[in-house]
Amino acid sequence: MVRLIGILIGIGFVVVAGISLITGVITHLTTEHVEDAAHALHEEPRNYDFDHDGPFGRWNRQQLQRGFQVYKEVCASCHGLNLVAFRNLSEIGYSEAAVRAIADQWQIQVPSINPDTGEPAGRNALPADRFPNPYANETAARAANNNALPPDLSLIVKARHGGANYIASLLTGYRDPATYRDHHGQPVPEDIRPGQGLYFNPYFPNINIAMPPPITADGQVTYTDGTNPTVDQMAQDVAAFLTWTAEPNLQTRHRAGTAVLIFLIFASILAWFAYKNVWANAKRTVRVAGPLDPENMARREAAKDESGIAG
Amino acid sequence: MATVEHTEEKGGPAVHHEGANGAGGDGVRRRDFINIAAVSAAGVGALAVVYPLVNQMNPAADVLALASIEVDLSQIQPGQAIKTVWRKQPIFIRNLTPAEIAEANRVDVGSLRDPQTLAERTREGKTNWLITLGVCTHLGCVPLGVAEGENRGEFGGYFCPCHGSHYDSAARIRKGPAPTNLEVPEYTFKSDTVVQIG
Amino acid sequence: MAFPWAQPYEPKNDFTRWIDQRLPLPRFVYGAVGGGYPVPRNLNNFWNFGVLAGIALTIQIVTGIVLAMHYNANADTAFQSVEHIMRDVPQGWFLRYAHANGASFFFIVTYIHIFRGLYYGSYKAPREMVWLLGLVIFLLMMATAFMGYVLPWGQMSFWGAKVITGLFGAIPLIGESLQTWLLGSFAPDQATLTRFFSLHYLLPFVIAGVIILHVWALHIPGSGNPTGVDVKGPQDTVPFHPFYTAKDGFAVAIFMLCFAAVTFFAPNYLGHADNYIPANALSTPAHIVPEWYFWPFYAILRAFTVDFILPAKLWGVIAMFGAIILLFFLPWLDPSPVRSGNYRPKFKLFFWILVVDVLILGYVGGAPAEEPYVMISQLGTIYYFAHFLIILPILSRVERTLPLPNSISESVLHGEKAEAAPYGTPTAATETGSVVPSKTL
After folding, report:
1. Could you give the ipTM of this predicted complex?
2. H/E element, A217
3. Which CATH number is correct for C37-288, 3.40.920.10, 1.20.1260.10, 2.60.40.60, 1.20.810.10?
C-alpha cells in the first residue's frame, strides 16, 4: 500500500520536475544565445608567489612592513582598518617605541570627547586603539567618494575570491577601455565601457570599479628599506600586508598544524597496530564466555549430572 | 557444510574478553604493549586539546593591552588630586603639599593598623605623588576626598562613607573597619610629568 | 540485551562494586559499549561512521560552549565579536576554525553513515526505529547548522537566513505570518539573531538525547552487518570491547588527521568568502548559496522553475522537504527481506547511480542558478524522486537476489559467497535449533 502511494507521489514529482525541465530545454533551444560580454572580459586573478602561500608559508616581515607603508601612504585616507589595533604592528617587526610613534602620529584622530566641555573631539591614538575610520560614518564616506563606499580592508583578502592574488591583480589591472583587447582579441563593447566615476578593470567582477587606480606610478612610495618601489612591487607588498591584517595567526596556525599532524600520524600508526593486535585471533576462535556458550552449557550439564539433580 | 564448532586451534587458546590488557593473572603481557602505547598517545592528545580549551578563558589580547596606562601629571597642582581608571578600577593620584607630607611623617608608624611609612608608599624623590587604588579595603566602595569640597575624614586624607573608614594624608587606614591601607599599584615615572601605571 | 550469551557485568574491585550497587552506571556502560555487548564480527569500516558522528558532535558542543563565552549575539557587534575571537582570544582562531570545520566534518561523516544505511538495508525490519530516529537527528542537525551559520552575521549569514525563512512565506495562507513569527521581525534582524543563538545552543543537546534513543533502539536487535544475515550464535559475534573500541580508535585517529589537516591548513576552503563581509541589508551578494552540506537540497529547491497548478517556488519548497520526508517511509517503500546491497545486484546498481546523482545535485546546488546547471539539477531531482518512490518499490517486488551466506561466522571463515544459499533455505543452524533461535533471516 505504501509502495503504491509512493509510486504515485513519485510520478507526481517526476512530472512536475519534468515540466520545468522540458520548458527549460525548449527555452534554451529557441532563444538567441547572447554571450555575456562582461563575462567574456572578466579575468581570473594572476598567480603571484607570496611567501605566506602554501602549508609551510611564513611571513616575510620586511614585505609586510613595506606593505604597511603603502597602506599608510596610499590607502589609509579612504579605507579603514578597523579590526587591527596599532599594538598588532609589533607582530610584523616594529618596536614598541615605533608602534607608539605610529599611533601618536596617525593622521586620523580617534573619536573622543573634550574633557572640559564634553563636546565630541578627537585625540591622538594609543597603541591599544584600533585604527580609526577615515570617515565618521557611511554617509560621509559615500559623500566623499561619488556615492561609492570604500570597504574596510581588515578582512578584504578573506572576503574576496582569489585572496591576495586578486588584490594584487586588481591594483595592477587597470586598463584603457578604448585600447584594451581581451584574449579573443575583441575590443571592449560600447555599453560595457565605464561611465562617469567608474574605471575599467577586467579583474573586478563587474568590470568597472568605482575606485580610481590608487597606485599609478613607480616611486609613488619611497620605501624605508630601499627596495625599488615599482607599481608591481607596491601592489604585491600591500596585498601581503592585507593578508596579514586578515589572518594574523597564519604562521602560528601553520606551525601548530604541522606539529599536530606529525603527532596524529604517529598516533594513527600506534592505533593501527593496536587494532591489528586486538583482532589477531578474531577470525579463528573468539568466544564470549557467557552462560549459553556451549562450553559453559556442557559444564553445567556435567555438574548437574554429578550432583544427581534431576535435569 | 561447515558446522558451528569449526575452530582452528593454532594460534593459541581462545582469547577471552578480559579487556585489552588481558591481565588474566599474567600481569601486563608484552603483546599488550602496543595497546597501552596507543591509549597513552590518545591520552596525550586529549591533554593537548584541553590546553587551548582552558587557556581561552584567560584575558584576551585587547584586555591585556589596557593592562598599563600612562597618565599626565602636569595639570595636577599641589593639594589637588584626580581620579582615573586602570584595569577597570578607580585610581587616586594626589599631589601632596609639604604640610601633608610632614603630617604623614609625624605619625608613629608602630601605632598604625597597617604599618607603612610615606616613603614606602611613594617613589624616591617623588614623595609628593601619592598614587593609590581608589577602592576601600573594607568592602570595596570608592572613598571620598579627591574632588574639591569632598569630605576628607578626620585625618585629612580620604573618607569612605559606606562604613566610616578614615584614611590619612598617606592614604593609610586610621579609623574604621578597613583592615589595610589603600593599595599602591605598580607604577614608574616615565618623566617628571608622566607616570605609567601597571 | 540483544543476545543471551552476552557476558554479564562483574565489578572488578570494591570501588566499582560500591558504585554499581548504588547506581548501575558501570553495568550500563559495560552492557552498551563494553565487553557485555556482542557485535557481529564482520563489520567493515563503514560501521565506524556512527561513532565518528558522535565524536564530531562532541567536538561541536565543546568548541561551541567555549566560543559562546566570547561571542556577542547583538546585530551591531556579532561580526566584531567573532573577529575578537579570531584575533584577541588566546587560541581563539583555533576554536573558531575547529567549530566551523567541525560542522562540515559532522555532515561528511553523517552522510557516509546514512549511505551505509541505504546500501546495507540498515533501515529494514527490525531496525526501522533506529532509522527514523536517525532521520530526526539529521533534521535537527540541519536546523542547528543553519542557525549557527547565521550567528557571525556576515553577508551569507544574513542573506541565507533571508532566503530560507522566505521559503516559509511560500506556504499558502499561513506563510507570511509564519515567516514573520520565525524571524521576530520583517527581515533577519536583532530578534532573529538572539533567538537563533538560543536555539543553536539548545538543539545539540536535544540531538544528544535523540542519539541516546537511536543507540538504545539499535541495541535491542543488535547491530546489523555487511551480509544482512542475522546473528545466530556466539560464534558470529565479538564483544564490543576490546574489538570495536580498538577498531573505532583507529578510525578516530584517521578522522582527527583529516580534520586537523583541513582546520590548520585550509580552514576557509569549505566556506564562502562573502561571509567575511559584515551583513548589509541593502546589498545582495551576487550568488547566495548555503554551506556545501545543503547544496543537494538547494539544487532540488531551485530545480522547479515553472508554475503548474502551484507556484514554482512552492513546488521547490515541497520537493526540498519532501526529499527528506520520503526517507521516513523507506522501510515500507523497500520492504525486501534481503537487506544488504551485496546480494541485490540491481539494487546495487541503482544505489550507485543515486550516489552519483546526489554528488551531481550537490555540485549544481553550489553553482549559480544558470543554464546548464538548472537543467542538470532538474534531471538530478527527477532521478532522486524516481529512485526512492518508483524504482525501489518496484525493485523489491521483481528483483532476483543472490544467495545469502548461512551465517556470519561462515561468511567470515570462508568468504561471503561460498557456503551460501538463497534466502529462505533452511540451514543446519535453523533446523537443529542449536544455540539461539534467531529471527527468520
Report:
1. 0.89
2. none
3. 1.20.810.10
